[in-house]
Amino acid sequence: MLLLLLIFSAAFAVEPLKDVVYLVPPVAIIVVIMIAVANMMATAIGDPRMQAWARTEVRELVAAVLLVSIISAAFIGSTGVSAALTGEEDYVGTSLNKIDGWIDNYDSAFQYLVRAATRIRASATYSPYINVPLWWVSLSYSGNPIGGVAIMLISLNIAAQGLTNVVFLYEAVRMLVLYLKVVVPETLLPIAFIIRLIPFTRKIGNTLIALSLAGIVFLPFAILLADAFHGMIDFPEPTISNMDALHADPWAMALAEPLCESETVRTILSLTDPLFAIVVCLPLLLIPVVGVGLFNACKPVIEYVIYPILQLVFQLVMAVLLIAWSAYFAAGGGEDYAKDVFDTIYPFLQDINNLVLMGYLDFILIVLITVSGAKSLSSALGGEWYMAGIQRLI
User: Fold this and answer.
1) Residues 359 and 310 in one domain
2) Do 234 and 150 fall within a single domain?
């Protein structure tokens, strides 16, 4: 009880979660004092069991001090190992850069997926419709000449789902590495050292030490190892070099585009028959004496003859263009487009599949190395009993 009181007093003397590293030596000194007091009491009362316990705790304390020293030296030497393997001393930062590179590759592939799906969907949903009124009757035309190509969107959606899962997975790994980079050296590992120094909590301390080292050492080096394996294979980088092949090339729309975008044409066609006649004939009112008569003569001609003819000509031109384009697809042009889409999408989807598979294989490798390292360290340090629950959690 006195030991715990002294340790709690030392803990309250430091700033929370910032000076935990400096709490390790005072705790070690307090433990030494308490073991010495226990040994003196055992000698005074002649209790051999307490004397044996005190000698055992002295050995465990020496082992704990050596363990802290070895781990601290290992942290100092890890920069040299990292420099030898990666050329960078900050192995944690290097592992984060590797993950960022993987995520950039996933993001690039996802952008190509979105662009391809957008073009295919626009082509598949293109359904021209036009109505040509002929005074008492009208002609209508509609169609969806290449709607069948939409079936290829199913494969793109599945690929996007798999790629999204991998992106979320490695974003989580990246955040975990960032979290451990901040928490382990300054907080979690010193707390593990303190718990290891205290009698009766050695197994918990050993387990925490193993988990801390696995998170700050094994996890980053597992990421670097997985990235090194990428250099041994043809790592997929999905791209679509000929994005124009996914465009349906509606030349009828291209020919009609100037007419549709012309503000003058759009304004004329948006006016009603009487309003258009008034706008056209209104300047005749400026003519002295005969202006009103000219206006009255002009308005019916424009309203009932000229304006309907303008609308009819425009609609007939659009109908001819759309019917000709549909006839082109009916004659085999649609099959050519579907073939172009398949030839462009198929190798891209193969690369996406390989990229997602490599992402899962890398993750399995990283988890195996990290968990195996934590288990081995915990077993070596004497914390094996606590690893079963942690393994189930993982």
Assistant:
1) yes
2) yes
Closest to 156 in 3D by CA, of 186, 182, 188, 118: 118
- Asked whether residue 223 falls in the same domain as residue 129, the answer is yes
The total number of structural domains that make up the chain: 2
Q: What is the mean pLDDT of residues 137-163?
A: 82
- Burial annotation 75-88 (CB, 10 A radius, 16+ → b, else e): eeebeeebeeebee
Instruction: Clarify whether residues 316 and 169 are in a common domain.
Output: yes
Strands 137-142 and 129-134: antiparallel
**Residue reference for tokens 């000219």:** 294
Spatial contact of 28 and 62, defined as CB atoms under 8 Å apart: no
The answer to whether residue 141 scores a pLDDT higher than 60 is yes
Is 90 a member of any domain?
Answer: no
* Cβ partners under 8 Å of residue 219, min gap 6: 95, 176, 177, 180, 366, 369, 370
Distance CA 353, CA 236 (A): 9
Q: Do 100 and 201 lie in a common domain? A: yes
Alpha helices in 87-151 (DSSP H): 91-124
| Structural domain ending residue among the three candidates 85, 105, 134 | 85
More confident residue, 31 or 235: 235
- Choose the final residue of a domain: 24, 52, 85: 85
**Treating both helix axes as pointing N-terminal to C-terminal, what angle do 263-270 and 251-261 enclose, rounded to 10 degrees?**
80
Write out the residue range of the structural domain in which residue 49 sits: 2-85
Question: In terms of domains, do 100 and 36 share one?
Answer: no
Please report, rounded to a whole number, the percentage of residues in the chain having pLDDT higher than 90.
17
C-alpha distances in Å from residue 45, one per residue of 48, 54, 56, 339 = 9, 14, 18, 95
**Mean pLDDT along residues 347-364:** 92
Together in a domain, 293 and 335: yes
pTM for the full predicted model: 0.69
Dihedral pair phi/psi, residue 151, rounded to 5°:
-65, -25
**What is the pLDDT confidence band of residue 74, given thresholds at 50, 70 and 90?**
low
- With 0-12 / 13-18 / 19 or more C-beta atoms within 10 angstroms meaning exposed / middle / buried, residue 164 is middle
127 with 261, same domain?
Answer: yes
Q: Could you count the other beta carbons within 10 Å of the beta carbon of residue 386? A: 16
